[in-house]
Amino acid sequence: MISKLLNFLTKFGLPIVAIALIVMAVRYMANAKQRMPVLPPPIQPAANPFSNSVAGAGMVEPETENISIGTPLPGIVWKVCVKVGQHVNAGDPLFEIDDRDKKAELAVRTAMLADAQATLDRLESMPRPEEIPAAEAKVRETKADWDNWAQQTARREKLLPQHATSEEEFLGRKMASEQAQERYNKAVADFNLLKAGAWEPEKQVARSAVQREKAQVQQAQTELERLTVRALVDGDVLQVNVRPGEYVGTIMGASGGPALIVLGATHQLHVRVDIDEYDIPRFVPDAQARAVLKGQSKDFFPLRFVRVEPYVIPKKSLTGDNTERVDTRVLQVIYAVDGPTNNKLFDGQQVDVFIDTSSPKVATKAKVE
What we know:
This protein is of the alpha+beta class. The chain is 38% helix and 25% strand.
């Protein structure tokens, strides 16, 4: 009985299984030839609004560009006067650096200026009114002494022929009279010198000392004022990278870190577009242009041409390795956002820019580095 069953399976079962496998293989091959369904991308790419255009990557920036604020003098930050998003006017303080040493230096310079000014005032006010009577009295005293000795000499000279006095006594009186005359001459010269006041070259030296001290005081005041870093233009505070108590230096950038404060006039936003050097011949300056947000293909912002920076520069999307070579260069074109931004554009934001090239205008020429 078992042998008959095995013969039946062998004779009819194996062919049936083979046919089933063939059917399954054919069905699998038929399904494999069908195309996979096309799935939409998670983020729709920007759609080109123009039939003929030049595309470029754009970066939103303020009308004034980003102004990196540093410090002219190193020191410890004493106070930060602004916050991110705050509007400042030209002259408003941004942050202050510890100024105690500069204030002490200013006090020393001010005292030295006062000393130099007092010396000059003393020279220019000479002679003192109190010194004149004493000098005049000295002149009168020496004049009277001279007259006395002159009279005695004259009397001895009359008695000398009568031998009523000795020649030695006469010569002594005569010598004393001449000495009295010289004392009178000296008193008169001293009186005239006193009335003349200080010597002009001495006054000039004193004036120069005053000017030197004034310059040093002004220098100390300038150094003190420079410790309060102020805004030079109207704008908005975009970044604050400094805190009270931090030590700040005078070097910014790759070796000194980021800017301490970044300012920019954001009431009018600009877009800086990088146009590949291969597309420069097709670029039309005054043509229509639109910016599209990354990942928002339906948000278009009309752009208005501002200027071309006619210097083709290396593309900035680099790794930073000092051994790399730059093969791509770009022309930077500045556009203004012509219309409301609906609070969707921010400084530093990347956008896709499309520029219409259907206009017959002549393309801009750029100087290659």
